[in-house]
Amino acid sequence: MLQSRAMGYLVKIQKVERPTNRSYYLNFPVALAEALTVKKGEKFEWLVEDKNTLLLLRLRRSKPRKLNQAKRNRQNRRP
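Given the sequence above, the corresponding structure tokens read:
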């Protein structure tokens, strides 16, 4: 049975203050965007679970990526 392994990315929140607007920005790491095949303009939604936990949900679900045969063989050999 395969075990889920969480992957984390450290990001900093940037605060931008303009005369007419105050915003906070989070950068989305390129490695993560590429792994998830995020496209420019794609829509996501933030869900607040509690003060310490935010969930980022893709609004249009994408199909799961299929593993190639070599990766499947390596995973099947693991105890």
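The longest strand covers residues 44-50. Try to locate this feature in the token string yourself.
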